[in-house]
Amino acid sequence: MATWVLVYALWAGAAGQQPERNLVHRRRIYLDDRDTGRWHHFSFLAQVRRWVANPQSNQGLFVQATDSRGEPLAVIQPNSNDEEPYVSHLRAL
User: Fold this and answer.
1) CB contact set of 28 (below 8 Å; sequence gap of 6+)
2) Do 61 and 70 contact (CB within 8 A), yes or no?
3) Which residue in 34, 42, 43, 46 has its CB near the most CB atoms, within 10 A?
4) pTM over 0.85
5) Which of 69, 61, 76 is nearest to 22 (CA)?
6) pLDDT, tens only, 19-41
7) What's the DSSP call for residue 64?
8) Dihedrals φ, ψ of 56, to 5°?
């Protein structure tokens, strides 16, 4: 069974409104031993360059995992000491 990990860049919306989302990465993963229970790495160099050019637009990233029907999946916190260094860089919304 396949699923998707979607990563959106958040941009400042109109005053008083939610940030806008722009899809910057999409990766298909498989719900088996080769793709689950491990870290997935994405490059954000282009996005960081946009933020450096326009720092006010930086509203962060939104990571979403969906199943094959597009339904959201839970993204959980790391559960081992080996993963601890990543915790300060991840935040579930």
Assistant:
1) 2, 3, 4
2) no
3) 42
4) no
5) 61
6) 888 999 998 888 776 766 667 77
7) E
8) -65, -20
In contact, 38 and 66? CB cutoff 8 Å:
no
As a whole number of angstroms, the distance between CA 70 and CA 19 comes to 22
pLDDT at 93: 40
Contacts 24+ apart (CB under 8 A), 14-19: 19/59
| Paired tokens of 81 | 């000491």
- Among 70, 67, 61, 64, which Cα is nearest to 43's? 61
Burial class (CB in 10 A: 0-12, 13-18, 19+), 11: middle
Which residue in this structure is represented by tokens 């959201």? 72
